[in-house]
Design brief:
By secondary structure, this protein is of the alpha+beta class. Helix content is 64%, strand content 15%. The chain is built from seven helices and five strands, in the order αβββββαααααα. It has a five-stranded antiparallel β-sheet with strand order 3-2-1-4-5.
Length: 260
């Protein structure tokens, strides 16, 4: 009878050990998958950040060309030009036509900013434009001259999402807590946003930082993104203070086992 009970207890112990080992392997496999997810997120962020850099450089080069080789003056919106896209299966769009005078001559130009319908409120209004000194027939509105900055801001926003998710997940997998997320994720992301806001000034060599915000739309959006990142960091801190997650230590130990 005692032998039977001993054998039964040994079987139960072996079963419990196998179950614990299976749970540990499952947990380690989950952490490995999370690590792969974090790295994939960071690679995706790098890809979109590269797109952002392309648009940023295009915008900076274009704005410098306008600032150094064009003059700023005023023109009047006289109407809109319709562009027929029906043959291509797309919607028609409209671009504003404006007139201006330079060197005693009158010129007319079409801006490349597209509208789904004519903006009647713009017709008859004075607008600020760039005019090419060497070829006065070339002109562009200052509000659309930096169109690349908007596309750069969109690319940056898309890159920021996987960057924050992947960075926070990787820090968590390595056993880091709120302080590490602040130092390695939230703060660097906010600094990165503001650094490129300042770098937008390279496109306006003769102007100050105030003109960057008034003339380059992408700078405003990057500042908004920096504020959003800081807000996420504050919310993260409040959640940590309230709930004090206890799985950090276990994740740190699991990470060490994975590295071994």
């Amino acid at each position: 009878m005692k032998k039977k009970k001993r054998k039964q207890s040994e079987c139960e112990r072996a079963f419990q050990e196998d179950a614990a080992q299976a749970r540990e392997q499952k947990r380690l496999a989950r952490i490995k998958n999370e690590r792969k997810t974090a790295l994939a997120m960071l690679l995706l962020a790098c890809a979109f950040f590269a797109v952002f850099l392309v648009f940023f450089c295009l915008n900076t080069a274009k704005m410098r060309n306008y600032e150094l080789n064009y003059i700023r003056t005023y023109g009047v919106v006289t109407g809109f030009q319709r562009h027929d896209n029906a043959a291509a299966g797309k919607f028609d769009y409209y671009t504003p036509i404006f007139s201006y005078s330079y060197g005693g001559k009158q010129y007319t130009a079409t801006d490349w900013a597209a509208y789904p319908a004519p903006e009647e409120d713009l017709i008859g209004k004075n607008i600020e434009i760039y005019v090419d000194l060497s070829n006065p027939e070339k002109a562009a509105r200052t509000v659309t001259a930096d169109g690349f900055s908007v596309m750069a801001a969109v690319s940056f926003a898309i890159a920021l999402i996987p960057l924050l998710i992947g960075g926070a997940l990787l820090v968590s997998l390595k056993g880091g807590g709120f302080k590490m997320r602040i130092l390695c994720v939230w703060l660097p992301a906010a600094i990165l946003c503001m650094a490129f806001v300042l770098l937008f000034a390279l496109g306006l060599p003769n102007e100050g930082i105030a003109e960057v915000y008034s003339r380059i739309a992408g700078a405003t959006w990057l500042t908004v993104f920096a504020g959003i990142v800081i807000a996420i960091g504050i919310i993260d801190g409040l959640i940590v203070l309230k709930y004090r997650p206890s799985e950090i230590d276990s994740r740190a130990k699991a990470w060490k086992k994975i590295k071994k």
